[in-house]
Amino acid sequence: FLSVAGLLGACLWRAGVRVGAGHPVAAVTSILAAVYQQQDAAGASAQVCSEARDQAAMETKIASIREYRDTHADPRFVWDAPEVVDESDELAIVSVRLTVITGDERTAGQTLHVTVLDKQARGWWVCDVNSVPDSVPDGGPAGEPEGEPEGEPGGG
Q: Which residue has the higher pLDDT, 132 or 148?
């Protein structure tokens, strides 16, 4: 069985057919890792559906992540386990909370809704990413703001 799968993979690779992720959550996890951990524009673009692929925009995003890393104290980008919140025959919406934590313990976060397209035998592909407002519990403040980390070093 493995040799048949390997042969099929080699044939698809030679034919230039790209295969996406096996599940919507896997597609989201792959693109987050490529953008925020590896900072690999080509690797991230490889996870994006052809209809939405824009290499220049991806390179701009990666450059902004690198600049952020260069101007903040040891930032780490982490995310909660992505969760499918809506799914139809061809599309899934995956929600994920992305957080940056700096070396001086400042944090900032945002919730993303990632639209993932199922191209059947070709797998799942990321097609759109939107930041969504955090819910406001019982009239209280809404989570951490987007953008620059807040707080003072040492507990402010």
A: 132
